[in-house]
Structures are given as structure tokens and as C-alpha cells.
Specification:
Largest sheet of chain A: 5 strands, parallel
Largest interface: A-B, 87 and 87 residues
Shape of chain A: globular
Number of helices of chain A: 12
Strand content of chain A: 5-15%
Order of helices and strands of chain A: HHEHEHEEHEHEEHEHHHHH
Structural class of chain A: alpha/beta
Oligomer: homodimer
Number of strands of chain A: 8
Chain lengths: 318, 318
């Protein structure tokens, strides 16, 4: 059944259906006709994110070939054994990039741009390169400086993850309903179809996709992700090991992310330096507001500060 | 089977048992012979904490009578209907305090001391009054000023709870394995048996009990509970409602406590003012350390700050 025939049937019956049924049909059609036309996906870096992308493609698009690329043969063989990969190799080669293929670079943020620039010379113009890095301007800027990479690359950041890395924790539904920010460059002459294809790739593994510039992404993620990590680290260190026995579930929730890899997070913070500094300054200012209200016995102001936060947080699911 | 007979059996067999079996027997005996000699427990304030104390007593000590005291007849009747209470009333009366009874005041921290002082004149010397407030010095100091209350009251703080109040969310195992800090006054001539009885009460509903002065409690809880609440509120407000769509599970975990009641938390922060100010200052200092390391491109220092926190947080279960 092709799209046109399906639409004809829909037009013929829609006047006889109630609104909820119509909505359900429209949602189903959107799902069915969502494009995912890739012949193969090459995942560079098969950890939690790369492994979950592999799992999602294997489950949703079994006709697409998934190749893992990494340093450790042993780890890659184990990921294949776990059913995540059709194939693997320790380097990207031109022979992998035949037909319509997407390369997804899932490395630490400081290694992504160099990897993209190393892959681009091997690729035909039909290849799309994207990434999953949680900072964007530093990566996109470096890629755009390379004339071979620039027309092939569209940066992306799926906002999903966990404290525990490794493909062993990969899940096919890790991206379900999560937002993926797609960040075409502010300027340059990238083919609009490449951007659209990038959005189809990420929505094809379950993401809701939104588009913004690399800098806008970095400004917002400094607030929504990088600052919370710094705040959790500060809260943890101020408490200190000796006081952990008197912590409760609130502390555990609030500081869970502080257990994340220091090496990876150093690169993220340093890779978004100016925006993180601005976010930290905002937090320092608001902490000073709390302290001043406490010092001045201005209890209504304390309640106001708490209430602003509670209203904001309550508007989000728990 | 009484304690002495059980101990004789234990002594006769222990040389034939391996260490893990012995440990298991000792733990079981400790549980069996834990004292809980209260005829009745009066819970003033039947919310999440008061309701969970009621549920724990009803489950573990069915011979003990549980009376709820609160403002709303409708709510109290509903709590009785839910099986939490044997009985309820809208005020504590002398007739409730017959025999060996414990009054547990589970009100907002700013209402506890006045409530204790109102109950004490009705009580015989055999009555124990304790509380569940999350600040201690302000409460204990005010109670100790009252000659009738001072010999009856031993403050306590079970470190357990949740963002969602109300007896509907009460759980009989809310206190299982959680720490309860028991805070006899720094000075004064409180009967040591009252302190011991308080510890038995809280361990009798599942808590691990630790003893410290009210001020020591407040200094540590400012770090482990009150500061994390301020940090979560700051993180939430700096992000702001407009950026919530780009938050992930890390932000949700880190800020969950910020949804707690602003009115209750204002009283907690104001009730532990000096210690909270000191804790906020420590956090401001460490945020400034992060900002300086970022500004000076001192990336090894960023990683060191993150690593200190990660080591500390990893030593706690997730």
C-alpha cells in the first residue's frame, strides 16, 4: 500500500470517524510513512549512546546494516555477540561508506571534530555524518573549517543518557520521546536535504527533533545540563564523605549525576566554557540572594525564592 | 521463649556454626528482643511522616494503640478508614496519656515547640514526647526553657520522607534502614532512660538510631539536606520554565526536591539559619572555584573538582 492510495482511503472515510479515532489514524500514518532510507549506519564509539542507537536501529529498521567502529576488538566482538552490530572494525574505511549511509560519531566531545575530519575524505557526497556530542559550537566550528567535512556533517545532540556507560547498558528505547537537538551551522551553504535527512535519522530511532544553531544549543544546555552537573558536584563535595551517613533520598537524587565520569565532563564543561561560566555566575547570584534573605531575616523572600523554583519544577513531570 | 533461655541455646550451639550463620542468628535475636514497650502512641500531625509512623506501628506492634491528632476531622476519619489509626481527636487530652505512652509531634518545624509545651502539662512523668522535625536546636532550646516540658521531651529527626505529603502516601516501611538522629539536650538533667526509650521507639519502627547534640545535628543537616534543597531550587530557577523542554533525566533527578512545599522549607531554612548560611557560603566558594578554573583554562583543576565529587558520590549507593 503506497502513500497515495492510503491517503485516498483516509479521505474517503474520515467524515465517518470521531476525532480520537482520526487522531490515532493520523499518528499511525505519520509513523508508517516516516522516512528511514539508510542502507547502513556506521557507529563510531559503541558505548551507552552508540550501543543504544545500534539497538534502536536493529529493532526498528532491521533492513539497515549496523557497523560498529572502536578501538577494542574484544569490546566490539562482545557488542556484536550481544546482538547490537551486524559487523565491526577498528577504523572507518571507504568500503563501509557505499550506498546511502550515515556515520554517527559517539565519542567524547573533544574527539568528535577530528574524527569527522578523518572520515570525510573517505566519503562520497551521499554520505551523512552526524554526532551525539553534548556541546555543539566548538565541534561544528571546527568541522566547518574543513571543506571536505562541511557539506557532509550536521551536528546533533540526543538528550538522553545515564551515569553508567558501556554498551552493556544500551537500550533500544533510550531515545523514545527524548528530544534530539539538530544543529546546522549558523552560516555556510549546507544542503537543506542533509539537514532534513539528519532529522529523519534521529526521529527514526524515537527522538522528537528540534532545530537550533550550535550557539543557541550551547547556551541552553549550559543551563539545563552542564550547570546541574556542576551544582551536583558542589553539593556532594561540600557535604563530604564523613557526612554521607546522614544523607537521605533527596541528597541521593540531587547528586546522582555527580558520579558521572570526571574526564568526560571536564571536556564537556571546557568545550562550552563561556556559556558554563555565565550559567555558574547566574547560580552564584541566586545563591547570594538566598544568603542575603537568610541573613536579613527576610523570610517572605526565602519563601518567594523557593516558590518560584517549586512552580517551575512542578510544571515538569517527576 | 524468654531471653535467658534463648541465650543458653545460643551459647550451646555457637561453636558448631559458621560465622555467617552466627551473624544471622545474632541479627535475628537483636530484632526479636528489641524493646517496644509502649501501650499507646499519639501522633500529632498525620501527614506523610505521621501516617508512616502509624502504619509502621500498626504493622510491627499491633498491641500498641495508635491515636491520631490533627485539625481536620474529615482527614483524620479518612486516615482511620485507611487503617492507620485506632482512634483520633482534634486535640491531645489528658485521658489519652494514660499508661505508658509516647507522643510524636509531626508538625512543621515552627509549630513543634509550642505543641510540646501545650501537651506537657497534661502528661504524667511516664509520658515521653518526641518529634520528627528536621531542625533541632531551635526546637529543643525552646522546649528546654519550659520546666514541665524539659523532663518529658527528647527531640528526634528520622531522615526519611518524600516530595509528596499526606497520609495517602504513608508507607509502613518508610523508615526501614533509615537513620533517625536522637538529640538529647547539650545540658540539663534529662533522665537517661527517657533517651534510651526514645531510641527504642524509633528503632522499633525500623530506624537505625544515632545520637548527637541538637547543634551537631543542625550543622550536618544544613549540609546534607538543607543545602541540597537550596541548590536544587537555584538550579531550577536558573534554568527557567522556557528551557525545560531541553532538560533530561539528570536535571529531573537533580531538582526533584525543589518541588517540595515552599512554606515548609522556608521554616526549615529559617529554623536553621546560621548553619544554612554557612553551608551556602561553602557552596558559593566552591562554585567560584569551578568558575575560576574555567576562566583560567585550568582544565586539570576542573577534572580534580569533578573527581573529588565523583569519588565521594560513588561511595554512596545510587
Amino acid at each position: 500500500m503506497d502513500v497515495m492510495r492510503c491517503c485516498r482511503i483516509y479521505r474517503a472515510v474520515r467524515h465517518h470517524l470521531r476525532a480520537p479515532v482520526l487522531q490515532s489514524i493520523i499518528a499511525t500514518m505519520a509513523e508508517v510513512f516516516r522516512q528511514f532510507d539508510e542502507d547502513s549506519v556506521i557507529i563510531v564509539g559503541v558505548g551507552l549512546i552508540g550501543g543504544s542507537i545500534a539497538a534502536a536501529i536493529r529493532q526498528r529498521h532491521p533492513g539497515c546494516r549496523v557497523t560498529g567502529v572502536g578501538r577494542s576488538e574484544q569490546r566490539l566482538a562482545a557488542a556484536q555477540e550481544a546482538g547490537l552490530l551486524n559487523d565491526w572494525a577498528t577504523a572507518v574505511t571507504a568500503s563501509m561508506l557505499q550506498g546511502r549511509s550515515v556515520v554517527v560519531v559517539c565519542l567524547p566531545v573533544n574527539m568528535i571534530a577530528a574524527q569527522v575530519r578523518a572520515i570525510a575524505p573517505l566519503a562520497s557526497t551521499d554520505v551523512l555524518i552526524t554526532d551525539a556530542g553534548s556541546v555543539k559550537a566548538a565541534i561544528c566550528d571546527r568541522v566547518m573549517l574543513d571543506p571536505k567535512s562541511a557539506p557532509l556533517f550536521v551536528g546533533a545532540h540526543p538528550i538522553a543518557g545515564g551515569e553508567t556507560g558501556g554498551f552493556e547498558n544500551a537500550e533500544a528505547d533510550l531515545f523514545d520521546g527524548r528530544v534530539c537537538v539538530v544543529t546546522p551551522p549558523d552560516h555556510g551553504e549546507l544542503d537543506g536535504r542533509k539537514i532534513h535527512r539528519t532529522e529523519e535519522f534521529w526521529s527514526g530511532i524515537g527522538c522528537g527533533v528540534t532545530r537550533m544553531t550550535p550557539r543557541e544549543h550551547d547556551r541552553i544546555l549550559a543551563l539545563t545540563s552542564h550547570l546541574p552537573h556542576v551544582m551536583a558536584a558542589v553539593t556532594t563535595s561540600v557535604v563530604g564523605t564523613e557526612n554521607l551517613p546522614l544523607t537521605g533520598s533527596g541528597f541521593r537524587d540531587a547528586t546522582r549525576i555527580a558520579a558521572g565520569s570526571p574526564a568526560l565532563w571536564k571536556e564537556i564543561l571546557a568545550g562550552n566554557r563561556e556559556q558554563v561560566i555565565a550559567a555558574v555566575q547566574s547560580a552564584e547570584q541566586m545563591l547570594a540572594d538566598f544568603r542575603t534573605a537568610l541573613t536579613e531575616h527576610n523570610d517572605p523572600r526565602i519563601e518567594e525564592l523557593l516558590s518560584d523554583a517549586a512552580v517551575c519544577r512542578t510544571s515538569l513531570e517527576s
